[in-house]
Amino acid sequence: MKLKDRIAIVTGGGKGIGAEICVRLASEGAKIVIAEMDIENGEKISKKIQGNNGEAIVVETNVAEEDSANNMADVAIKKFGKIDILVNNAGIRHINNILDHTKQQWDDMISVNLTGPYLCCKSVIPHMIKNGKGKIINFGSIASFMGRPDRVAYVAAKSGILGLTRALAVDLTGKNINVNTICPGLISTPFNQKFAEDPTHGKAWGKETIVGRWGLPSDISGAAVFLSSDDADFINGSEIKIDGGWLAAKTRKGEISN
Ligand SMILES: NC(=O)c1ccc[n+]([C@@H]2O[C@H](COP(=O)([O-])OP(=O)(O)OC[C@H]3O[C@@H](n4cnc5c(N)ncnc54)[C@H](O)[C@@H]3O)[C@@H](O)[C@H]2O)c1
């Protein structure tokens, strides 16, 4: 077991990628704090982990609120006495062209996707410093690297995450805390369900990757285990793209020799 008795907070751990990360970290021996707005889903994942002889609790959390982020860390410390791992997975997305993109949508996406990770890091880092070690994993996207249509705030927030990750890693020099970003591509979760299941485009979009399919939450969770473990002690201020090669290659019909 790579993470025996490590304490891991996973934001948005009630469904999709976050839920799979909770289960996978627990299977490696970590005790899990599921920090969720959606308590019902959080409880389902907590029960699943307990059913596999793991340990998990749910803390009702809105990562965009400073008091709520602080409470998340307080509850984790009260229950488990330390925090080893923070996975800043919670995220939201509104899709709207700039002409219709409201200030409220902008504020919501920046608050949850960028300010949220900052607040959760702020609440957890003093405990990691006391602990003498820590691993923080932020969540970017393929949208961290390129413009995507009708997603100005999402792209801005997910690009900002790469800067936050690097700046935090530098600020934590000498503290033995690694800060890295996972950048998923097309992953079939509730977040993307309507695209993955789109009868006209769904399959074709999967085929745009080099691997030739949509990703699954289980394609992401292995990297979360790795970045949480001692195997990743020399990886800091960095990012890993998990997109089936989508960002690495753009081929066009007619340009391939065979
Ligand atoms: N699914 C993809 O294809 C994809 C691609 C690139 C990046 N991502 C990123 O991966 C992360 C997870 O995505 P997903 O597809 O699993 O999403 P999802 O919508 O399936 O799950 C997100 C979870 O976060 C929770 N959440 C939302 N706002 C919250 C808040 N303010 N505080 C606490 N919890 C909150 C939700 O309740 C939900 O359980 C997100 O950061 C997303 O931007 C996903």
Automatic annotation (TrEMBL):
InterPro entries: NAD(P)-bd_dom_sf, Sc_DH/Rdtase_CS, SDR, SDR_fam
CDD domains, A to Z: SDR_c
GO biological processes: monocarboxylic acid metabolic process
Top-rank taxon: Bacteria
Family: Belongs to the short-chain dehydrogenases/reductases (SDR) family.
Protein name (database record): Short chain dehydrogenase
A Pfam family annotated for this UniProt entry: adh_short_C2
Gene3D superfamilies per UniProt: NAD(P)-binding Rossmann-like Domain (3.40.50.720)
